[in-house]
């Protein structure tokens, strides 16, 4: 039963991709990028690198909508609303969840990542994550420089994944 449902979902997704591909220029890939406002200067680097890599990959800048929520915990709700809107081919989330000493940041990170996974499973809209939770982060130059650079890399990686999951060949069998 599960296998039949899984195959039906893959077939449905493949059909959607083929319809988009057959539409050619009539379908323009639309992407939503949702980021948290905490550590904005660092998370902005992910967004900027993502947008640059997507445009380098042939996606029109006007096809990428940027959203900001107060913190990482708010990302899944907006991502779900965007996915359910039917407007987007993929959604990318970015945030930095750090241990502020008040609560266990692992709980927040787990809730965010689990929420993002659930959204894509329920809506069939790919939801990609560049939400990171470092083991150690302190407000000093060394960590800020490292994570600023790291979020630049994560933005490019998210763009590569986004280009892959929105391509017409995604979910096609691999031929040897």
Q: How would you concisely characterize the structure shown here?
A:
With 176 residues, the chain is an alpha/beta fold.
What's the layout of helices and strands?
Layout: H1 2-23, E1 31-36, H2 40-56, E2 64-69, H3 75-84, E3 90-96, H4 105-123, E4 127-132, H5 141-165
Parallel strand pairs: 1-2, 1-3, 3-4
Q: What would you note in describing this structure?
A:
This protein has a 4-stranded parallel sheet with strand order 2-1-3-4, sandwiched between helices. It is built from 5 helices and 4 strands. It has a single domain, classed as 3-Layer(aba) Sandwich (Rossmann fold). Helix 2 (about 40-55) packs parallel to helix 5 (about 140-165) and helix 3 packs parallel to helix 4 (about 105-125). About 55% of the residues lie in helices and about 15% in strands. Residues about 1-25 have low confidence and may be disordered. By secondary structure, the chain is of the alpha/beta class. This is 6,7-dimethyl-8-ribityllumazine synthase. Keywords: Riboflavin biosynthesis, Transferase. Its EC number is 2.5.1.78. It holds the Pfam family DMRL_synthase.
């Amino acid at each position: 039963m599960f296998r039949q449902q899984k195959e039906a979902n893959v077939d449905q997704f493949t059909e959607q991709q083929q319809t988009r591909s057959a539409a050619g220029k009539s379908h323009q890939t639309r992407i939503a990028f949702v980021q948290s406002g905490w550590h904005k200067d660092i998370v902005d680097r992910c967004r900027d690198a993502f947008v640059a890599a997507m445009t380098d990959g042939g996606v029109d800048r006007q096809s990428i909508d940027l959203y900001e929520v107060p913190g990482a915990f708010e990302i899944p709700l907006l991502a779900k609303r965007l996915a359910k809107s039917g407007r987007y081919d993929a959604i990318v989330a970015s945030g930095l969840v750090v241990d502020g000493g008040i609560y266990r940041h692992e709980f927040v990170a787990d809730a965010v990542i689990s929420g993002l996974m659930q959204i894509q499973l329920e809506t069939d809209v790919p939801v990609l994550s560049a939400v990171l939770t470092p083991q150690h982060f302190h407000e000093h130059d060394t960590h800020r420089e490292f994570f600023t650079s790291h979020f630049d890399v994560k933005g490019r990686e998210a763009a590569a994944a986004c280009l892959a999951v929105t391509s017409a060949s995604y979910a096609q069998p691999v031929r040897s």
